[in-house]
Structures are given as structure tokens and as C-alpha cells.
Write a structure and sequence with these properties.
The chain is of the alpha+beta class. Helix content is about 30%, strand content about 40%.
Length: about 140
């Protein structure tokens, strides 16, 4: 990687991690704002996942392998709780990981949790999920 003055960096440029974490947070923000709550339409926008989630995405809890399986799981969740709204709090990012505290609320659901996402090449590749359900 070249420096702004034309030299070559022997180590990672000082602003590289800040740029990477900013970009990673933008991907996760899209996950919540464009996928879950796209225009507050009450329906997830699955096409957004094709842009931001790796086809081989893995979620640890509940165990889910693959973007298609994740879409099916979310469709099932929204079918069971059609009025569900998903919110998120400020994110913390470091390296290739972004941690988010989130809530899912509706008539028959009141859940909150923390998910730590791992990203690679601008896509979500893994989610480590810990949550509480009060359904």
C-alpha cells in the first residue's frame, strides 16, 4: 500500500483500521435499516442480504448455515410476528468485527440481545448471537 507522499508503508497505515471499521459499521447499519426496517414497511427486504451477506454466512445461535437458510429463518420469524420491529443501539467495531445491541418488539415478542458480526471483503460472514426472549 502506498502512502500519500508516494512512499511505501511497511506497516498498516494509521487510518486503515478506522476506515475498515467505518465501512464495516456501514454494512451492519444496512442490515438493520435496509433489511429489517426498510422504510418501516413491516417486511424485511431480502434482496439487501444478497448485497451485504456472504452466501456461506454462519450464525451460531440459532445454528444457521448459509444465506438462504438465514433468509428462511427470518421469513419464519416475521410470519410468526408480523408486527415485529427491530431496533439497534450504537455499534462498537474493531478490526473485522462489529458488535451491536438490538431489540425486537411487537405484540407477541419482546426480545433483546447482542450480536457480534464478522465481515470479510465488505460482506457479513459470521454472526455470534446472544439474546433473551420474552415471547
Amino acid at each position: 500500500m502506498a502512502s500519500l507522499d508516494g512512499g511505501i508503508y511497511l506497516t498498516t497505515p494509521p487510518d486503515y483500521e478506522a476506515m475498515a471499521t467505518t465501512e464495516s459499521k456501514a454494512v451492519i447499519r444496512r442490515f438493520y435499516e435496509e433489511f429489517h426496517n426498510a422504510g418501516l414497511s413491516d417486511k424485511p427486504h431480502f434482496d439487501v442480504l444478497d448485497e451485504i451477506m456472504d452466501p456461506d454466512f454462519v450464525l451460531d445461535n440459532p445454528p444457521t448455515r448459509g444465506r438462504g437458510a438465514f433468509k428462511a429463518r427470518v421469513a419464519e420469524l416475521y410470519a410468526k410476528h408480523p408486527d415485529m420491529k427491530v431496533g439497534y443501539r450504537p455499534m462498537v467495531a474493531e478490526g473485522d468485527r462489529v458488535a451491536v445491541r438490538w431489540t425486537a418488539t411487537g405484540k407477541d415478542i419482546d426480545s433483546n440481545g447482542i450480536t457480534i458480526f464478522r465481515l470479510a471483503h465488505g460482506k457479513i460472514v459470521e454472526g455470534l448471537n446472544n439474546y433473551n426472549n420474552r415471547v
